[in-house]
Amino acid sequence: MKKIYSLLLITLISFSTYAQEEKTEKNDKAHYNTNKFKQLKEEFNTPNTYHTASGAPGKDYFQQKVDYKMNIILDDKNQKIFGEETITYHNNSTDVLEYLWVQLDQNVRATDSKTPDINAGGPGVMYKPLKFTQKFLGKGFDGGFKIQHVKDKKGNTMSYVINQTMMRLDLPKPLKAGKSTVFSIKWWYNIPEHTIDRARSGYEHFEKDGNNNYIIAQFFPRLAVYNNVEGWQNLQFWGRGEFALEFGTYDVKITTPADHILDATGKLLNRKEMLTKTEYKRFKKAMTSYDKPVIIVTQDEVIEKEKVFSDKTKTWSFHAENVRDFAFASSRKYIMDIMAVKIGNKTVIAESMYPKEGNPLWEEHSTRVVANTLESYSKQLFDYPYHKAISVHGKQQGMEYPMICWNYGRPREDGTYSERTKNGMIGVITHEVGHNWFPMIVNSDERQWSWMDEGLNSYTEIMAEQTYQEGFPSRGFPKNVTGYMSGDQDKLSPIMSQSNNIYSFGMNAYAKPAAGLYMLREVVLGHELFDKAFSTYAKRWKFKHPTPEDFFRTMEDATARDLDWFWRGWFYTTGNVDIGIKGVNKYVVTTKPTARVKKMAEAYGMKVEDFGPAMFLVNTDSDDYTSDMENVKNPMEDIKILKDYLNENYSASERESLKNTKYFYEIVFEKPGDIPMPIVVEYVYADGTKERKQYPAQIWRKNDAEVKKLFATDKEITKINIDPDMLTADVNTENNSWPKKVEETKLEQFKNKIKG
Hints:
This protein has 756 residues and is α+β, with helices and mostly antiparallel strands. Helices cover 27% and strands 26% of the residues. The protein has 20 helices and 31 strands. The strands form seven sheets. It has a seven-stranded mixed beta sheet with strand order 4-7-2-1-13-17-15, with no helix packed on it. It has a six-stranded mixed beta sheet with strand order 16-19-20-21-23-22, sandwiched between helices. Strand 20, helix 8 (361-380) and strand 21 form a beta-alpha-beta unit. Helix 8 (361-380) packs across helix 9 (419-434) and helix 13 (527-541) packs across helix 14. Residues 1-23 have low confidence and may be disordered.
């Protein structure tokens, strides 16, 4: 049964919407607010004095501080790490702590690790002999921390319990607010060969010369984060969700074979003693070389060092302040090059360490990419605060730590490489160096929300890559996520999913958040608003622990734009974007009353004449349209009441400046997709010119399926395109054009047939 009466009554009140006479079925069922533009009150945590409603840290915000003093020995002959650390834990919270939680990430590879048991799946594609032996022949890798002792400041043994990758350290007496405690841990572990089990750190063995390349991280017991949001952030490390850590000061001494080259997080305090006179002289030269890298250790020198294995040792000494982690890389195979980068009013070291197997690719690009990343990110966010950034070559690696990162990108044995290998290396170095901002400084909880470091960094990476090489194939463009977003819903998870529960991790945690931010900048907010808000978030939360709400709220706070519809659709659901053109209606101008006007007059108990002289738009496909109406070519001249009005109210010069509107088009836009998005329209005219128009996403606020817009122009439209630059991640482009692509194809076929 037709139920249009209430709808008709409403539309009569607004003349502009009177034509909306659609057949609808009445829905008598009550429902919650399902509008895509409702506020995110139900999803967001309530703001408080720790995390404010504006997205900034509150007056009571606190975070703990942890200081480490470590002595580390790298056993190159047996591939082991031996370590002892003294930890000072500062309780800056208002809470009394009965115990501390310590992360033992190496335990993910312990013989009793549960990580292999939670991962389902059948046979792998292939197995190297060592991996096959470990997996199927009962000779598994003996990984994990071997804790030798945990002692308090006085040397007394402390009570602790190890639960897989977490250790609860029971304090002799509760640690009061504002107080600190000191304890020490001694340990060792077998270093995994990361090329076998894809560990985040470890070593690569080079069979030809017998050397190893060590990239060492997660090598010491580290304190978990304690805050006002979750208390102890002590989720188990299952191998994917990365690390939530506290800031502090590190004093670290690392003993290695005397012929190794090493660098790490923090300032190298005894560089002059660790390098040869020639190497140190080259280093001093590099500190004033802003245009190109200076090679500190040459490839020829490395080839000679590879032949002899020193039995002597030397100890490297580092100091780092206000960092959340520590990592180092060491090998006698390292070529090293350095260049200087001007960031603000200081000089920063851009550095690379790589074996000869990385050349010529690494010598050509690595340090230059580091320098470009430092400059680009500093411009976008805030000046890089540390004194150096290091890129280390690691096969199959891509992992970040403060001031140092591991990166893949290895040429073939003859030194040649593909464009894909080169771009992959440029991309991963940009990404991993960029992680110094997210999360090494803007310190989000990676174990919980991977997108807060991977996604934000992947967006910022795009800008840096395009600076380094215009047209670089960055992965975070909106067009690159459409295939993923239109996939099987059973294999999709919202961006706002805990790290270990994400399907398609690369797309969900990296590419989709990056694409969303790119759309915000290019389509929704514009460059000026977005750039200010994005940098505001970074500056507010540098050296602090932000939450997702802090990011969302800051972006709205700094732009005066309600973006809840965007966060909900893009981050909290698995919906996609699909906006199309359902149809186009052409109109002409007439002074003859239409059926629509007559209905309105009847509804108000009036006569058409009571409205007085007026002009009406008539659909050329409607019953109101008559052949004499098409004679109106120029309403400004052909419609007397308009001509009289203009002559009476505008001067000749003013009339000359008025738009000479001749054509009227009603475009019916449809939205089969779930997520609202601005409608970006390109109108193509008969004379070949084009015009862009953008309708805000809020156009869908009252009708989530279909909206109409009237477009008036002085030129005939021959084609209409939606999202012509592919900036809205539209998953279906078949409905993005008028006339439809299929119609155009048939027309071309018909024309070709006639020509034939």
